[in-house]
Amino acid sequence: MSTQHPRRVLLLLSALLPLAAQQPPLPADLDACVQRAMTTFEVPGLCLAIVRDGTTALAHGYGVRNLGDPAAVDAQTTFGIASNTKVFTATALGLLVEQGRLQWDAPVVRWLPAFQLADPYVTRELTVRDLLVHRSGLGLGAGDLLWWPASSYDRKEVVRRLRHVPLATSFRSTYAYDNVLYLVAGELIEAVSGQTWEQFVTENILQRVGMAHSSVLHSAGRVLHSGAGNTAGTHAMVDGELLPVAPFTSDNTNPAGGLMSNAEDMAKWMQVLLQQGLLADGTRLFSQATARQLTTIVTPLPIADPDPVFGELRPNFNGYALGLGVRDYRGHKIVTHTGGMPGYVSRVLLVPDLKLGITVLTNQESLRAIDAIVFHVVDHCLGASDKDWLLIQQQAEARAHKQQAEAIAKAAAARNADSHPSLPLDRYAGSYEDRWYGQVAIELEGDQLVMRFAQTPLLAGNLEHWQYDTFVARWRDRSLRADAYVTFALTPGGDIDQIKMAPASPAVDFSFDFADLLLRPAKRVAK
C-alpha cells in the first residue's frame, strides 16, 4: 500500500503523461490554417473531419461548392473520395472471407474462371489478396485507358480485355499502383455474393455504418449539371487558371474510386476503422482479424530520402496493405490513403495509437493544400514542434513546377524543328488498333491530322508535327492535361508499321497509360 499523498501521485502521473495527451483536441489556429491553405493553393471549398478518442471532434465545411456561387460547403456536402474507395472494396472482400465464401490466399480464377492476365502463370496464381496490393506485374496505371477518360466499355468488357495488357515486371516483384484489378475485385464480389459491388457495399457497409449521405456511384456527380443537391463542384488548374471541369460520371470504376461522401459520414467511417470494425451500436461491421488484414503491409515500398524540408516525413517502414498505405511518422504508425479524380482530391489519415483520424475532401486538385492541413493537425496532436507545413508545401510546389518546366524546355531544345515527316500527311491516316484498347482512327481533315480513340470520345485531338515521324496529340478538351507524343515507325517499303505513344509532359497523370499501347494498322492486328 502506497503512503504517498494522492494529490502528489496525480501530479506526478500528469507530468509523466505524453505531451500529446495534454494537448487541446484541435489546434487553436485550425480555421486560420485551413483558410491559408485554401487561399495559397486556390481551393474553392473543402470539408474537414477529425475524430479523437472515440468522438467526432470536428465535421465542418469551408469555402464554396462552386466558383462564382455563394452556396457554402457544409458537413454534409458530398465530394468524390476517389481511391479512398479502395478500402471499402477491401472491407467488402473481408466480409465475404468472414462468411467463408472467399479466401484471401486462394486464386481468383476459382470464382472467376474467365479472368485472365497476359501471363498464364500469373493468371493461375493471382489471389484475392493480390487484387488489392499492386504487385501483379502490371505497370503503373496499366489498363486505365479502358475506362479513363470515360469509355464506352462496360466493366465486364474492361476486365475481359485485361488479358491483352502487357505485364511490366515479374509477378509480386514490384509495387506499381493500379486501378483495374479493383474492378476485378468488384466483379469477384458480384460473382460470390450475387449482388453488384454497388449493392453489396451500400447494404453491408454504408447503411450499417450510418453513412446516410454517401453514394457508391461516380454518376452521382451528375447532379452538378442540374444544380441540384448538396454536392461540391469540380475544379482544376488548366493552363495556369483555376476553372470548373466536368465531373467524372462513369460507373465503370466504382470499386476503385466511385464513392461520394462528406465530413459527417467520413467521421463515422474513420471511427469504425480506428475501433477495428466496432460500430457505434456495439455490434461489429468486421472482426478484429479482418482489421489486422486491412492494415498489415503486404507489398513493401522503397524508402527514399525526401527533400530535406520534408525530413520528418521520411518513414522507417512503408508499404501497402489492403486498400491502405501503412508507414510511420515521428515514431507513430499511420494508416493513410489519397484519392484523386477530375476536380477532387482527398486524404484519409489515421494514427491508431492516438485514436486520431483526419479526412480532408476538396473540390480542387491540390494534395499540397490537404497535406498542409493534415500534418498541422497531426503535429499538434503529437505535441511536436511547430513547423510551417503550408510554407513547406508551397516551396515544394514551386520546385515541382520548375522541374516540370525544365523537362519540357529540355525536350523542346532537343527537338529538330527543321525536320519533316517522311511521308505526305495522308499516308499517316488510317484505322489502327491496339490489342487491349481497341481502335484508334487517324484522319486528315484539311491539312491537319486528327487522332480519335474510338471508345473514348474525349480523346480527340489534332496531331501537330514535332520532329521526323513524331507528332504531338493536342487533345481538344484542354482540361485533360494529357498531351502525348505519337511516333510512327515505317516498314522498309514506306508503309506505316506501328505507332507508339508517350506522355508529352511529366505532369500527365499516370492513368493516361499511352506507353502501353502498340497501335498497328487494323488489318494486321491478330484477334
| Overall mean confidence score, pLDDT | 92
Let me know the number of strands. Answer: 20
Largest sheet: 8 strands, antiparallel
Instruction: Report strand order across the widest sheet.
Output: 2-1-12-11-10-9-8-7
Low-confidence stretches: 1-21
Fourth-level CATH superfamily of the largest domain: DD-peptidase/beta-lactamase superfamily
Structural class label: alpha+beta
Distance between the termini: 84 Å
- Radius of gyration, CA atoms, in whole angstroms: 25 Å
Q: Domains counted in the coordinates: how many?
A: 2
Structural shape: globular
- Second CATH tier, the architecture of the largest domain: 3-Layer(aba) Sandwich
Q: Strand-residue fraction?
A: 15-25%
**What's the CATH class of the largest domain, please?**
Alpha Beta
Per CATH, what is the topology of the largest domain? Beta-lactamase
Question: Share of helix among residues?
Answer: 25-40%
Count the helices. How many? 13
Brief synopsis:
This protein is of the alpha+beta class. It has two domains: 23-392, DD-peptidase/beta-lactamase superfamily (Beta-lactamase, 3-Layer(aba) Sandwich); 425-524, Lipocalin (Beta Barrel).
Report on this structure:
The protein is α+β, with helices and mostly antiparallel strands and 527 residues long. It has 2 domains: 23-392, Beta-lactamase, CATH 3.40.710.10; 425-524, Lipocalin (Beta Barrel), CATH 2.40.128.50. The chain has helices at 6-16, 30-40, 86-98, 120-125, 155-161, 180-193, 197-209, 223-226, 254-257, 263-274, 288-295, 367-382, 389-414; strands spanning 45-52, 55-63, 79-80, 235-238, 241-244, 260-261, 299-300, 318-320, 325-329, 332-341, 344-351, 356-362, 430-434, 438-445, 448-453, 460-467, 470-475, 484-490, 496-503, 520-521. A hairpin with a 2-residue loop joins strand 16 and strand 17 (470-475).
